[in-house]
Amino acid sequence: MVAANNQQQIKRERRQISHYELITYASSVILLIVSLFFYLWPKMQIVNLSYRWEKLQLNKQEVLKQNQIYVLEIATLRSMQRIEKIAKENLGMIEPEGGQTVVVELEQGKKQ
After folding, report:
1. Per-residue pLDDT for 61 more than 90?
2. Is residue 108 in some structural domain?
3. How far, in Å, CA of 64 to CA of 4, rounded?
4. How many folded domains does the chain comprise?
């Protein structure tokens, strides 16, 4: 019986929270969450940008390697020995004889 009376007294001692207190508590919690969000958001953005930066750096290195390969390939394709070989073997061209060549000189200052 004594335990039952104690429980009733505990229940009676609980006070009701007023609307003003409820709004104050809710506002405090919301303010805390918003503050935490504004505190963490820039840090999350920095981490995301760091990951993106790393990906871009790796991509840049791959592009630079590919560019070097292309530059070497262009130099190989423009090689005079290669062009001469293709001209002779595939196109059936021959070296010109002494009197078959004509040298054309441009006037200075004029562009072709």
Report:
1. yes
2. no
3. 82
4. 1
Between CA 9 and CA 1 the distance in angstroms is: 12
Q: Which residues lie closer than 8 Å to 25 by C-beta, 6 or more apart?
A: 17
Instruction: Give the whole-angstrom CA distance, residue 112 versus residue 108.
Output: 11
Residues 13-51: pLDDT tens digits? Answer: 667 888 899 999 999 999 999 999 999 999 999 999 999
Planar angle of CA 91, 94, 97, nearest 5 degrees? 155
Q: Which amino acid is at 77?
A: L
Q: Find the mean pLDDT for residues 55-66.
A: 98
Say if 44 falls within a structural domain. yes
Is 70 a member of any domain? Answer: yes
pLDDT-derived band at 81, boundaries 50, 70, 90: very high
